[in-house]
Design brief:
About 2% of the residues have low confidence. The protein has a domain of 114 residues. With 371 residues, it is mostly helical. The chain contains 14 helices and no strands.
Length: 371
C-alpha cells in the first residue's frame, strides 16, 4: 500500500521545486548582454530593408503596370463570365472582350486626331489676327509700355532658344507617346493573360489561406472581385452620361460637325475619376474657342455646371449602387488616390476603398462586437 503522507510530501517538494524554478530570473535581453552584437544586427537589418526598398522603387513602374492590368482584368472578368454562362468558351470570351477594348481605344484615337489637326490648322491661321488684336488692346499696351512684353516675345520667337525649346518639346512629346504606347501594349498583354487564367489565379491565391478559413477567404475574395466589376460598369454608366450630354450640347450650340468625335473623347476620358471629366472639358472648350470665342464661352459655362452635377450627384449615386459606398467616401478616396498615384491612383481608389470597407464590415466589426 502507498503512504499518503509520503506522497503528499513528494508533491509538496515538487511544487516548491517548480515554484523556485519559476522564480528564477530570465536571461538578460541581447541589448544588455551584447550591445555590439545588437547594434550590428540592427544596422544589418536596416541596410537590408533599405536595399529591398530601393529594389521596389526601381521596379515601381512595372508594379504599377501589373496592378493596372490586374484591375482591368478583374473589372472585365464579369463580361467574360457572362458570355461563359451562355455557352461561350472562356478563351473566346476573353478574345472578344479584348478586341472590343482595343477597338474602342482605336476609335478614340481616330476620332480625336482629325479634330486636333483641323483645329490646330485653324489656330495657326488665326494666330496673326489674334496677335494684332492683342497689340491694340489697351491693357496689353500698358503692360508693353512698362515691361516691353511684346518686344520680349518677339525676340524670344526669333531667337535660338525658341527653336531649341520647341524641338525639345516635340522630342519630349514623341518620347512620351512612344512610352505610352509601350506601356499600353504591356498592360493589354498582361490583362489578356490575367483574364484567361483568372479562375486558376483565384484558386492559387485562395489556397494560401488556412484550410479552416479558406471558405471564408474565398467568399470575401469573390465579393471584392464582384465589386471591382460593378465599379467598372458604374464608370461606364457615368462616362456614357457625360458623352451623351456633350453630344446634345454641341449640337445645340452649333458644333455638330465635331459633336460625335468630341462626345467620344469626353466619354472615354470621363472614365478617369475626378480629373478625366476636367481633361475632356478642357479639350472641348479649347476647340470651341479656336472655332469661335463665343462658343468657347458657352462650353466653359456648360462644363463648369455639368461637373458639379456629375461630381456631387451622378457619380456618387451611381457608384453607391455599384460598390455600396457613401458618396463622401467615394470622393475622398478618389482625391487621395489621385494625389498618391495620379491617374492610376484615381482609377484604383474607389474599388480599393470598397474592398477595405467590406473587410472592415465582415471581419473587424464582428470581432469588436464579440469582445
Amino acid at each position: 500500500m502507498t503512504d499518503p503522507a509520503g506522497r503528499a510530501g513528494r508533491v509538496t517538494r515538487e511544487a516548491v521545486r517548480v515554484s523556485g524554478r519559476a522564480q528564477t530570473p530570465w536571461p538578460r535581453p541581447l541589448l544588455h548582454r551584447r550591445p555590439f552584437s545588437f547594434g550590428f544586427v540592427a544596422a544589418a537589418g536596416a541596410l537590408l530593408a533599405w536595399w529591398l526598398g530601393g529594389l521596389l522603387l526601381s521596379i515601381g513602374s512595372i508594379l504599377v503596370l501589373i496592378v493596372v492590368a490586374g484591375f482591368l482584368a478583374a473589372g472585365l472578368n464579369p463580361a467574360v463570365e457572362w458570355m461563359g454562362r451562355r455557352g461561350v468558351r472562356r478563351s473566346l470570351g476573353v478574345l472578344i472582350v479584348v478586341v472590343v477594348v482595343v477597338v474602342a481605344i482605336a476609335l478614340f484615337v481616330l476620332a480625336l486626331a482629325p479634330v486636333i489637326a483641323d483645329q490646330t490648322t485653324s489656330i495657326v491661321d488665326r494666330a496673326p489676327d489674334w496677335f494684332t488684336k492683342l497689340q491694340h488692346n489697351r491693357l496689353v499696351q500698358r503692360l508693353d509700355d512698362q515691361v516691353h512684353i511684346v518686344d520680349r516675345a518677339q525676340k524670344f520667337v526669333e531667337g535660338k532658344g525658341f527653336g531649341s525649346a520647341l524641338f525639345g518639346g516635340v522630342v519630349g512629346v514623341g518620347l512620351a507617346v512612344v512610352s505610352f504606347l509601350a506601356n499600353a501594349f504591356i498592360v493589354i498583354v498582361l490583362m489578356l493573360y490575367f483574364m484567361a487564367s483568372m479562375p486558376t489565379i483565384k484558386r492559387s491565391l485562395y489556397q494560401l489561406a488556412p484550410a479552416s478559413r479558406r471558405e471564408r477567404v474565398t467568399d470575401l475574395g469573390d465579393r471584392i472581385l464582384d465589386n471591382i466589376g460593378a465599379y467598372v460598369s458604374g464608370a461606364f454608366v457615368v462616362a456614357l452620361a457625360a458623352g451623351i450630354s456633350t453630344l446634345v450640347f454641341l449640337f445645340i450650340i452649333g458644333l455638330g460637325q465635331y459633336a460625335i468625335a468630341l462626345a467620344a473623347v469626353v466619354a472615354l476620358l470621363d472614365v478617369i475619376p475626378m480629373i478625366g471629366a476636367t481633361i475632356g472639358a478642357v479639350v472641348v472648350t479649347a476647340i470651341a474657342f479656336a472655332t469661335e470665342p463665343q462658343l468657347g464661352l458657352y462650353c466653359l459655362i456648360f462644363y463648369i455646371a455639368y461637373q458639379q452635377v456629375e461630381n456631387y450627384v451622378i457619380y456618387p449615386r451611381v457608384m453607391a449602387r455599384s460598390v455600396d459606398l457613401p458618396g463622401s467616401i467615394i470622393v475622398i478616396a478618389a482625391l487621395v488616390g489621385a494625389s498618391l498615384l495620379g491617374v492610376v491612383g484615381a482609377l484604383l481608389a474607389v474599388p480599393t476603398a470598397a474592398a477595405i470597407t467590406l473587410l472592415v464590415k465582415e471581419i473587424w466589426l464582428p470581432r469588436q462586437a464579440a469582445r
